[in-house]
Amino acid sequence: MKAVVFADTRSVEVRDVPDAVIEEPDDVVVRITSSAICGTDLHMYDGRTGATPGLVLGHEPLGVVQQVGPSVETVRTGDRVVIPTHVYCGVCVNCARGLSAACLRVRPGSFGAAYGYAGMGPYRGAQAELLRVPFADANCVKVPGEPGDELEDDLVLLADAFVTGWHATELAQVSAGATVAVFGAGAIGLLAAYSALLKGAAEVYVVDRVTERLDKAGEIGAVPVDLRRGDPVEQIRELRRAVGPEPGEEAMRGVQVGIDAVGFQARDRLEPDVENPTQVIGDLARLINPAGHLGIAGVFAEKDLHPAPQGHADGRLTVPWATLFSKGVSVRFGRTHDRRYTVLLRDLVLSGRARPSVVVTHHGRLEDAPELFAAFDRRADGVVKAVLRP
Ligand SMILES: NC(=O)c1ccc[n+]([C@@H]2O[C@H](COP(=O)([O-])OP(=O)(O)OC[C@H]3O[C@@H](n4cnc5c(N)ncnc54)[C@H](O)[C@@H]3O)[C@@H](O)[C@H]2O)c1
Ligand SMILES: [Zn+2]
Ligand SMILES: [Zn+2]
User: Fold this and answer.
1) Phi then psi for 293, rounded to 5 degrees?
2) To test ligand 1's pocket by mutation, which of 299, 317, 359, 384 has the most ligand atoms within 8 angstroms of CB?
3) Residue 375: its pLDDT value, please?
4) How many angstroms separate the CA atoms of 192 and 330, rounded?
5) Are residues 19 and 82 in the same domain?
6) Within this chain, do residues 99 and 141 fall inside the same structural domain, yes or no?
7) pTM of the predicted model as reported, rounded to 2 decimal places
8) Is the same domain home to 41 and 62?
């Protein structure tokens, strides 16, 4: 089968690799119809998180079940399925509590696993013609319709981007009426803003420096904040002045909720060619209101081969802890417990209440991956979210 593999820093290739096959009785093999490229793939593409050359990339698949192992009970050949990024068993103590990204049975001696992901288990990636799905009864989420129908792009985003955007709003406890600032207008930040609006947030600001991405933020009903125009904290405080707060509430001129949808490869605001992994947490600590909530969905890597000046090879950072303590801010982190939200968000899509595909800007064949990765990595040519159709 053909697959997108990591070849070297800033180089992916489409290669022939052995077909995905049934290895365990509870596996299925899925023929992929759509497979999205994610900002997480770029951390590997940039040579940062220790991907091994030859690694098949991709963790955002939608497809049709082609082959079913003998002990699979609920999935049949021909089922159209979306496969959540984080592989999980469905029955360990963490899975039973809905903490699927911390499954205890998918990575011996550790916890949590994902497809096509350096350091996250042995599972081959989904930017390929075929994907082996372990623990198939747990990991296949059935969706109606036919491959290539009008919901193809909405459904593929249920594998990761929409659920992670939603997860960010859960981490940050977004409620109706909330004021929200999202840093990063990639697919994750945009879909976090979109999720916040679905939940009834009153004001949602989205911070970035890329014109097409800021335009998308406006398109979904958020207020774009352009880093190129100066300190985003001051810009949001100024915008908030127009709508509130009431006299006597000036200390609340920030936001109640902050979301980091950038991660450790954040750019320095004053020197955007240089990374600064503490830029976003620093800005959010200044912006957040007393007793506010922060949700950190951007990835922070425990292994960074080329850390930025403020960074460290093991991911240690110096952050304004005292400011967060003094304000009484709650900070919650982490990978998406996808399976908690996949069905809920699938049904929002099927009912027509959500159209996450608003963030999809590009399509290609597997062969187009090298070009799409290069443009996405430069955040150029309007690429926000690209979907490969093998
Ligand atoms: N928690 C999870 O389970 C999970 C799942 C998927 C993705 N992620 C992570 O979420 C992050 C975003 O993913 P994406 O696909 O949207 O990536 P992306 O690279 O397309 O988006 C990141 C955006 O951040 C912007 N940015 C950079 N520095 C900034 C700064 N200082 N302030 C504001 N914006 C800044 C960039 O211009 C870019 O538009 C990545 O770190 C990715 O690995 C986490
Ligand atoms: Zn992803
Ligand atoms: Zn488990």
Assistant:
1) -130, 135
2) 299
3) 98
4) 18
5) yes
6) yes
7) 0.98
8) yes
Q: Can you say whether residue 174 is alpha, beta or left, with left for phi > 0 and alpha for psi between -120 and 50 degrees?
A: beta
Extract the tokens encoding 315.
Answer: 């991911």
Query: Residue 48 belongs to a domain with what CATH number?
Result: 3.90.180.10
Interstrand relation of 61-68 and 28-36 (parallel, antiparallel or unpaired): antiparallel
What was the pLDDT predicted at 386?
A: 98
Q: What is the pLDDT of residue 245?
A: 72
Q: How far from chain centre, in Å, is Cα 146?
A: 25
Q: Which residue lies with its CA nearest to atom 42 of ligand 1?
A: 40
Contact residues of ligand 1, CB 6 A cut-off: 38-40, 42-43, 160, 164, 183-189, 207-210, 213, 227, 261-263, 266-267, 269, 279-280, 297-299, 335-336, 379
Q: Is 328 exposed, middle or buried (0-12, 13-18, 19+ CB in 10 A)?
A: exposed
User: Regarding beta strands 28-36 and 385-388, do their DSSP bridges make them parallel or antiparallel, or are they unpaired?
Assistant: antiparallel
Residues 318 and 351 in one domain: no
Number of domains in the chain: 2
Q: What is the pLDDT of residue 131?
A: 98
Task: Please give the average pLDDT of every successive group of 10 residues along the chain, which has 390 residues.
Answer: 98 98 98 98 95 97 98 98 98 96 95 96 97 98 98 98 98 98 98 98 98 98 98 96 82 95 97 96 98 97 92 94 98 95 97 98 98 97 97
Residue nearest to atom 5 of ligand 1 (CA): 164
Atom in ligand 1 nearest the alpha carbon of residue 376:
20
Residues 102 and 29 placed together within one structural domain of the fold: yes
Domain carrying residue 308:
162-333
My answer on whether 167 and 314 are in the same domain is yes
Give the number of whichever ligand sits closest to the CA of residue 112: 3
- pLDDT of 263 reads 97
Task: Transcribe 105-121 into DSSP letters.
Answer: SSSTTS--EETT-TTS-
Q: Which ligand is nearest to the CA of 158?
A: 2
Q: Which ligand is nearest to the CA of 99?
A: 3
CA of 263 to the centre of ligand 2 (A): 13
Task: Report which protein residue has its CA nearest ligand 1's atom 11.
Answer: 298
**Same domain, yes or no: 315 and 356:** no
Supply the residue whose CA is at minimum distance from atom 27 of ligand 1. Answer: 266
